[in-house]
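User: I'm putting together a teaching handout on how multi-component assemblies are represented. Below are the sequence lines for each component of a complex, exactly as they appear in our records. Could you produce the 3D structure of the whole assembly as structure tokens, so the students can see both representations side by side? Please keep the chain order the same as the input.
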Amino acid sequence: ETGVTQTPRHLVMGMTNKKSLKCEQHLGHNAMYWYKQSAKKPLELMFVYNFKEQTENNSVPSRFSPECPNSSHLFLHLHTLQPEDSALYLCASSQDIQGSGNTIYFGEGSWLTVV
Amino acid sequence: EDQVTQSPEALRLQEGESSSLNCSYTVSGLRGLFWYRQDPGKGPEFLFTLYSAGEEKEKERLKATLTKKESFLHITAPKPEDSATYLCAAFSGNQFYFGTGTSLTVIP
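Assistant: Of course. Below is the structure of the complete assembly, with chains in the same order as your input.
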């Protein structure tokens, strides 16, 4: 059983819909991440939160809106997405964002299809 | 430019046929080299972290090694259940740089 839980595992949404992805980590970590994984591409870092504060936003379009209410929960709010946004969205956590012993642990991912 | 390159892109092995996967990195100030295993439709599962050149780590049929320019994941006598995509990532500064992975298929 993974220490990082994502829901839903699969989501199909229309281009005008609004939906949210949810992530919860049970590892006592302080940093949480959203990554996008597309076929044949390296994982793309989208957002980083450290102690609930957003520390990184890698030029992600505003149709993706993160929310981190506490260090255990992370959301990704989705609205007016495009078909090219279809991908596997991975949530991850680590003890913090500093230090060399900074292993990232991933959730199972949320498969998003935009139609 | 900081980047990580994995080769080969895909590898098919007969059960019991040992081989190695390569992860080359060009990042300044490497703080850790990570290996993950990813099964289809699932998130990456952590395997190893290597911190300095010459370091080696083993887990069952897998052994990871690190030099100043690359890391290898050696698979000894693989089994069909070792079939997966293997990802490596270099940690530098406060960023992880991921490769595109090697898709390994082990044929019975």
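A couple of points students might notice: The first strand of chain A starts at residue 4 and ends at 7. The CA atoms of residues 41 and 61 of chain A lie 18 Å apart.
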